[in-house]
Each structure stands twice: as C-alpha cells, then as structure tokens.
C-alpha cells in the first residue's frame, strides 16, 4: 500500500491542510485495505512530514481500531521532524520568499506546525510516546537522520542560496527508537537509492528485514494455514541454506553455532553453476600508468606492507615507524601528497587496512599490542592532528594482535581483530569484532568475541576424530557488503591452512556471527609454499555470494587435495581438488601463475585480477564457459605491460577495482603504483 496526500502550500493550487485531516484520511484508506488481510502484520515507512501523519494515525487507531494498531509491527522514519524543522522552513523566511514571488497565494498552516517546539506537534508526539510505552503495543521503531545540508530554497525556485540541515538529529531521533542511524545524504535524497546494491539501501533493507523476520516467528497467529509454499522477500544476498545446529555456544551476545558440513550431493563443475547470466564483457586497455610514490621521501624507509582503500581512492605503505597515505587523484595531477596518522614514539606498526573514510592500524611494543581506528581526513596532505581516533584497544601482556579487517557502512564501521597468545604453541586464538557508530556518538561501540579453537576440521579419512585448530590467523577480510567475514588460520607446526567463513547478521541491538563453511587445506612442505594467500567475495547477477580464494601451492599441486586456487559459492562445501574447483588458470595452462599472492574481483562479477609471486598483474574475464569466459581462448588471463616487485609475502602488494571510473589500482611496498583502465562495466 502506498499513500500520498496533497500538501501544496503555495501558488494558485495551494490547499488548507492539517495533520488531523490527512491522518484521518489515511486511517480510512488503511481500514478499507485491511478488510481482507486478517491480522497480517504491517510495516510503515514514512519520510519527513509523512512521519508526523503516521504517528498521528497511530494515535487515532488506539481509540477506534486497536486491533489494527496491534498489527503494526514496525515504523521506519526518514528525516521526520518530531520536534520541528530547522532554519528557513522554521523561521518564516521561506514563506516570506514565496509571498514575494509574483504575489503567490500562500497557506502556511502546514509549515507552522513544523516550527521548532510547536505546542500542537509536541502534543502529538507525547501521545505517541505514551502509547508506545504503555506496553500493549510495542512496534520496532527505526529513525534515519540526514548528514548533508540541503538547498531548501529550491522549493521557491531559488537554487543558489546556502544549504542547511533541514531536520536536525535531535529532532529526527526518538528516544524510544530501537534503531537510529545517520545516512550520508541530504533531506530530499535520503529515502532514494541507486539500486539494490546501494550500501544505504542494504542498511535500511536489513532493518526492515529484521522486523519482518520477527513477524514470521509469530506467523501462526495471523497467517492462514495452507499447504502452498509462499515466497519470502529477498532483500539481501543470502548463501545456500545452512543446516540447523543441534548445539552451540553463546559468547556474549554473539551466537556461534557448532560447525558442521552441509549434507548435500557433490555439485557440478564450476562452469555449470557460475554466472550463466548476461553480464558486461570485460575489456582492458593496453596502456598502464606507473607512478613512483617516493616512499622514502615520505619517511617510509623499509616498507613491509601496503594496501588500497576500499573505494580505490587512496593507497598506503608502512614500515615499523611510519604509515604514509597517498591520495590517488592528487597523484594523478602530478604531485605526490601524503598524510600520516599519529603514533606514540615507542610503538611499532604491525598491520593496517583502509576503507573510504577510515583506517585501522595495529601496533606492537615491548609490553603488548594495540589497535586504533582513525577517521581519515579528506585533505590529501593533512597533519597527524587531523586524524580522529574512533577506537583504541590493547591486548593483555601475554597476547598480541595478528591481523585486522575493516568494513565501512553508511552508519557504522566493522572491525575484526585476530588476537593470539604468545605464551605457548597451543595458545588459543580469538577474533574480536567491534561495531563502531562514528556518526552517532550516543550509540555505544559493540564488542563480540569468536574463539578460533571452536572451529574444527572435518574428518578427512586419515584421522579418527576432528581436530581443533589452534593456529594463528594469517588474514581477515570482510565481503564488500560486510555480510561475511573470512578468516584464514595457519595450523601450528603443520603446512595446513583453515579457511573459515562466518555470516554477519545485524540484529536490532547486536550482530551475530554464524558459521557458514570451513575447510582445511594441506600443503607439501617446501620453500616458498605460503598456502592460502587471499580471499575475495562478490555477488553474482543471481544475487548469490561467491568467493575467489588464491593459494601459493607446492610442486605437488597436481596430486594433492586443496592446493589449488578456486572459485566457489559461499555456503557450499569447498572444493577438494583441482577438478572440482575447475581452477581457471589451470584450465588455461598458465602454470607460471600457480602462486598467487593477492586478488580482487570487480563488483559486477565480470572479471578477476591477481598478482603472481613474480609481481605480474593479471586480469581474467569471469564469464561462464559457454559465454567465452574462463577456460576458453577468449578467457585467458591478460598481463599488464608493467609489473610490480617480486613478492615474498602477500602483504607486500595489493590491488582493487574502482568501477566508478573504470580503473584497476595495484601497489607494492617499493612504492610502485600501477593504474590500468578497463571497460565493459
């Protein structure tokens, strides 16, 4: 049901409208619509003044239709001025400007109600709050506020006036709200989304889906009994069904279910299930721009790690004493500008990751390990004082942080930290998950813990019982939408890696990690055998999540299980040999690319990129076999004409697609930056 109303307050067609009239009209329409719906739950979404109409309607339902009121399961408000609007819409300037334009007729009654601290508006709000707190009706309430100023003067055709926040956070946020987040949009665009992959859409859709799931748990009381199968709304990417767990452990507010392999038949080869939809064909330009970052000039004398931000706008290099951040747009103009976050003198850098606006760095000292999350300033040559610290954590004296992952959403930041004890070989490892709300200081940081020794190896036929993993985490990474967390663990004194995937679901006031799949990959012990080196995730055109896992295998890769890089759907059993994985590079007979150090996938799912151990940057189209993709002559990996340094560890290079401007960014610890251009987006 979509309900609209006339609210024209200026011009020859202006109307005298009131909140009460609109609310009564809405209730009448709703009752008529509900005649054949029984007790089916409802979720309402409203923007701006529509939110005031909605809470007034709830007050009316209490007195006349309490049964309909109880069916309202959720209310979602976008920029609703519960305590009035701000600026020109509140102080009468907008009304006066409208009167001055050709003598327009103005009926400002509807705007007068929206003035700050209006008595009638406060009365409506207080009635709604009392109704919500009474206990007989308890809907889930979500409030979204705006972060960017808007040009409200465009209402009277004056587009050149200064912009301002229309509804302040203090007005748009209810104290009784279960969810409240700030969206990086202005008042007029905060309820509009680009498509179903928009991060803001996924944020809001996730909240609505959570409310809907709460309704389905009680569906026996309102849904008619039927033998027909009804389809559920599909809002966010979902893996294949995960079997129910018979037991599990509850750690804080994180529910970690006991791992168990899904019992499903062997799936067909990769080309049978991989992207048989029509997606853009990938093309690569021959020219590659190579830039020297001049790391030593920036103070990074012996870099051991580097990275590309999630939006591919910045790169960074770090050694023990210095972390330098470079803005690629500034570099492209011919100047190498960099900035560095603050660091205490006795701390030494250990690792770092970066998103569009945030940086996480881990440090070591003689006593313990530390982790800090900074908000990165927009200025490319900002001073250390401009970096705002959002999270400051440290380990105990007998443990240290091994690796870190970072994900940025529109309203929160996810941080994953792997901590490992240093007192003994079998010291337990664990992952710390932090959910930070940098745009909402009133929302406390959430913290959950996953002990890695809860994950067990499957029975491989050689051992009599599953083995608990007590290894160190090699790397952590989030999927682009933050719904999955990948962890690769190296088993102590074994050439074996465990790849584990958790699904992160965001509940009303917590987030839950649920086990998806894992697999131990064993490698022949040889020099330069690094095992699993990276994992990247993307969503196919059919909305199913897939992962691309790269490895540095041994010379026995043709005979051993699990040494090959592979592509697999998340939520399914992982490949156990090269034939099951249908490794694209193996099929293309490019044996020189057997050791891959890092990888990236275009978000549209039409190409993969990777860096080999020799520093070659290669790109392969990711179409299905029948579409002329991987495994065909047209699907052979393409080498860029320029390469990076020879790599000894995966941390020494990184790459990422920037699909906004059609660029592939690659960087290494020697300060080499490669920028290649591609098409077919």
TrEMBL record:
Residues 243-257 have a biased composition (Low complexity). It comes from the Eukaryota. Signal peptide: none annotated. Residues 220-267 are annotated as: Disordered. This is DUF676 domain-containing protein.
